[in-house]
Amino acid sequence: MTAYDVSSARDELLDPVISMRGISKSFGHIQALRGVDLDLYRGEVVALVGDNGAGKSTLVKILAGVHPQDSGTIAFDGENVSIPSPAGSQDLGIATVFQDLALCDNLDVVANLFLGRELGHGPLDEEAMEQRSWELLRQLGARVPSVRVAVATLSGGQRQTVAIARSLVGEPSVVMLDEPTAALGIAQTAEVLNLIELLRDRGLCVVLISHNMADVQAVADRVIVLRLGRVNGRFRAPEMSYEDIIASITGAMNLGDRKPDSGGAK
Amino acid sequence: MEAHRRTPGSQTSLREANRGRIVDAVKKYGGLSQIELAGLTGLSPATVSNIVKELSGAGVLTTAPGTRSGRRAQNVTLAHALGLVAGVHYSTRHLRIAVSDASYTVVAETHMPLAKDHRADSELDRLTLLLADMLESAGAGMLDLLAVGVALPAPVDQRTGTVARRGILRGWDGVEVADVLQRSLKRPVFVDTDANAAALGELRMGAARGKNDVVYVDVGDRIGAGLVLGGRVYSGHGGMAGELGHTVIQEDGPPCECGNRGCVQAIAGGNALIQKLQTGNRGLKLQDVIVRAMAGDSDAIRAIADAGTAIGVATANLSNLLDPERIVIGGELGRAGELLLGPMRREVERAVLAGTRFAPEIVQSQLGQNASAMGAMAMAVDRVSLNADETQIATSQIATTQIATTQIAAEEHRE
């Protein structure tokens, strides 16, 4: 490996993959986001936490191309981009797994993974799709008995795994997970948390929305707290504590109270 | 995996490889039906059926009739006629659980990341649920469990059964872990420090097999040592033996969590390393440091080498005190291999009185991240065979199944 290779590999890790500046969004007279700045890097897990209505989902939906922002800029790998539609978001390399997973219960795992982007022209290349499905699921260490069973028969953890595997079909660089561990049993939660670590170790940026502080603390490298549409706290793993995060979520502590250098994205 | 199988091409080696595939799959996924096995391994259902029949004849697998999606199916699990033991390792940021039979054939494994400053109450509840789940997947119940070994990332006082020093593992202070767990599991539970457990693990089935005087050095967020003296794990009067991380090597060094200055842990522990390398806003973990070093990043290589030197100084002092035959390096940073071991070896060989020729060998852990969980398992096996009568009979049977399980052991070895 030449010296040049090393430096370029490091630059890729040091520069944010997504950089959001001054993002605002309102729905009618409700201001959901007010001037949010956020940097996301490759190979890290960023948790977005906050009370209901704090703006977490709105922020994710802007990145997912569901809503366009009212003002502010989004840069992807240093270039300003607009994300007009979910397809645009996918093309950029942002994959989103929503809370309801949006799986088709009556279709099998392969059909779900490749829904809308089936392989093969004319007749579908079922064999290639099945192979790729196994490949993806094996990479994720998924415990799915067969890829030809209807998704309805799978457990909660397995469904979550299939949804995450589907997000990886397009080789994204950012994966956003909305409440991935809600409504999962303890063993399935362990599975999903391991999966998040695996994605991170493969150099993906994982954005995690969760209300479960134990899960957030277990996997997150950084925690961004949103409150009433503003960023009210930024914490980095070594220095975060339950108390600080909860204080920021409730507003007992504001970003201004903390040292400006800690865990910030700016 | 396939790349490691040596004998090429012959019919027998193919059959052996297929047997390995099936045993691996059952080990990884717990109980499976034969059809699912066929799907997972890519073998034909007929081959699977033949091999399963053969292996259950040899006592490696057991089959039980069950149903899958409403159809009759043969449910295949690993054999565990002698009862099971569980090994649990809570590290600072991770939970690992392994369930094995009395001859250390692992039948189920789980691991998951944990929050920083995890707390005893919620984690022990989680353990109870996870264990029940794992036992079920292995086709067993809580009653099949002979004993549970638990390894904690803090010194454990065997007299009280609690963490020996307050403040190291804050969420677990004053909790009598064995008692609490015994009450919820209704099975015997034994607790020890993770470095001690890992030392026992390496002694029984890893890099320290057949040695009598061994030091296991656990390098990660914490730096600790497990001492094996005269073939037995030595934990000291109050469980505080082997706290290598709190050897002072620099009198005016950085402050340590223990209140002293210049402890090895404050200089070469995981947090110190991360702080040294942290640039920008991106979160950094110990594993990233290793990955960066392996990829040739000179800053990361330097940081690991410096850590190796610092730990080497402390280890050299320890070697002069105890004169071990072998030093086994494990823990999260132990995975850095020679990047860490090289500088350590240099320091130890330089400072050991016995001279370079008789200096202890420094080797990497064989069990890796699983060392403490496997050791906790060994701890459970050791203690339970002393206590329970039924296992006295069982141990004589182990010899017979051992023959059948050597094959699995050989598989494991190649991984």
What is the tally of beta strands of chain A? Answer: 10
Largest protein interface, residues of each chain: A-B, 46 and 43 residues
> SSE string of chain A, helix = H, strand = E?
HEEEHEEHEHHHEHEHEEH
**Order of strands across the widest beta sheet of chain B?**
6-5-4-7-10
> How much is the average pLDDT of chain B?
84
Round the mean pLDDT of chain A to the nearest integer and report it.
84
Based on CA atoms alone, the radius of gyration of chain A comes out at: 19 Å
Keywords summarizing the entry:
heterodimer, A: alpha/beta, Rossmann fold, 2 domains, 6-stranded mixed sheet, 4-stranded antiparallel sheet, 10 strands, 35% helix, 24% strand, disordered C terminus, B: 415 residues, alpha/beta, Arc Repressor Mutant, subunit A, Nucleotidyltransferase, domain 5, 3 domains, 5-stranded mixed sheet, 13 helices, 15 strands, globular
Notes on the protein architecture:
- The complex is a heterodimer of chains A (266) and B (415).
- Chain A has 266 residues and is an alpha/beta fold.
- Chain A has two domains: 16-93 and 172-266, P-loop containing nucleotide triphosphate hydrolases (Rossmann fold, 3-Layer(aba) Sandwich); 104-170, no CATH class.
- Chain A is built from nine helices and ten strands.
- Chain A has helices at 3-14, 56-64, 86-92, 109-113, 126-139, 156-168, 186-201, 213-219, 242-250, and strands at residues 18-27, 30-40, 45-50, 71-76, 79-81, 94-97, 174-178, 205-209, 222-227, 230-236.
- In chain A, the strands form two sheets. Chain A has a six-stranded mixed β-sheet with strand order 6-7-8-3-9-10, sandwiched between helices. A four-stranded antiparallel β-sheet of chain A has the order 2-1-4-5, with no helix packed on it.
- The two termini of chain A are 33 Å apart.
- Chain B is α/β, with parallel strands linked by helices.
- Chain B has three domains: 2-79, Winged helix-like DNA-binding domain superfamily/Winged helix DNA-binding domain (Arc Repressor Mutant, subunit A), CATH 1.10.10.10; 84-198 and 372-405, ATPase, nucleotide binding domain (Nucleotidyltransferase, domain 5, 2-Layer Sandwich), CATH 3.30.420.40; 207-365, ATPase, nucleotide binding domain (Nucleotidyltransferase, domain 5), CATH 3.30.420.
- Chain B is 44% helix and 20% strand.
- In chain B, a hairpin with a 3-residue loop joins strand 11 and strand 12 (223-229).
- The N and C termini of chain B lie close together (6 Å).
- Residues 387-410 of chain B have low confidence and may be disordered.
- At the A-B interface, helix 1, helix 7 and helix 8 of A face strand 1, helix 2, strand 6, helix 4 and helix 8 of B.
